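COMPLEX REQUEST
Ligand: zinc ion
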Amino acid sequence: MTLPRLPSLFGAVLSGALGLSAPATHAEPSESAEPVAVLTSIKPLALIVKEAFGPLVEVQSLLPPNVSPHSYALKPSDIRQLAASELFVWIGPGMESFMPAVLKKAPPQQTLALIRVFEDHAPELLLRYKAFGNPAHAHDDADAEADDGHEDDHAPGQVDSHLWLGRRQALESAQRIGDVLKQRHPHLTAKIDQRLSNFAESLSGLPPAPDLAGVRLVSYHNGFAYLMNDLNLQVSEVVVTQSDLTPGARHFGVLRDAFQRSPHCLINEPQFGGSRLVDKLATLAAQTVTLDPMGQDSTRYTELYRGWVEALGQCAVRTAPST
Ligand SMILES: [Zn+2]
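STATUS: Structure written out below.
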């Protein structure tokens, strides 16, 4: 997929040639004592920005936290909010596929697509979607039918967009956002650096991985690789290989057989709650836990991350089916 506008914006940010994307009315943002108006696409990015930069920023997120960023249609008010923001931070078209067209229509003063920044500055922190042993949707009639030509956004080998689930990636994101803030507001440099080092310390104080020896993890959606990588854990199966599909009968059978062979812990997400399929899988799993990648109820990133680790710890509670 091409990024019609972003490469030139990044070039401007990273070479320090600022002002190219800034309207004349904001020619000297560095003199302002007001918090910097930062808009993020999704809530967890806003949590990172808020915790990292505190009172230096006024941060909001565009998407409600209870929707999947993989499929969202912006409202006119969203577009006004976007055009009014000083800095807009998002992941990239692999996550918010609706954004490139909107950014063309309503460009904020400055835009930061994290995947692009990582590709340029920290490619070693990017993971790619791995292939799971279960049949891919291409071999599954029901799944193939559901494929309406939508891009295969969680396909093996492609860069995994769920960056914020890793601690190092959260810190790297904050540092790169800090670079932009420092360029735009040089008088904040010392405060930004101090806050970034505090944020790094908070991240390093997060709890270690729970002991999940003997438990196989299966996630509903293929979005947890960064967290697993952080915690040295592994997801052994995923229920859906793409964001907008449901598993076909054959894949369901494979999962059911696997669940019967050994204890599995099913990682569910609030947005999939109540689906009949999840309920059915949950009755077959030794344990079901809910991890909210979007942080619907969180006010701090480190609190959100702590919640993920605690939820995974629940996987160890029951390691064999009780029925
Ligand atoms: Zn996803």
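REMARKS: Confidence is low (pLDDT under 50) at residues 1-28, 135-151. The two ends are 48 Å apart (CA to CA).
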